[in-house]
Amino acid sequence: MGAIVEDEDLNEQLLTIAQGFLARHESDAVVDDQVLFCRAVKHLQGIDVPMHLAERLVSHAYGELKSCNDRRRLDIGASSETVAVITDPANGMTWAVPVGLIVRHVINSPSNRKLRLVEP
User: Can you say whether the dihedral through the CA atoms of 66, 18, 83, 92 is positive or negative?
Assistant: First the structure.
């Protein structure tokens, strides 16, 4: 199974599988984000993807799914290890956001929901 971690083409295919699963099941009436996340991870595990890789792939796919309608983008070329540069091509605005602020107000926020595999 270690080969999956290093095979970029296979990881891209697995990411596409995760994105497809999330898109198909996003509108299920009884599924909240946490349940959807867990079901997607279990789906990948069902095709022999190790849990740590399945969680990483589903996290990436979930982020893409939730942000696909947002026109703002991270400018990777202008960002650094300590500052995230965000642009809005529609209005030409650019924001430089220190990573410490992101950690403090988003990641460490008490209201932040962390999506992880939850076993029943």
Answer: negative
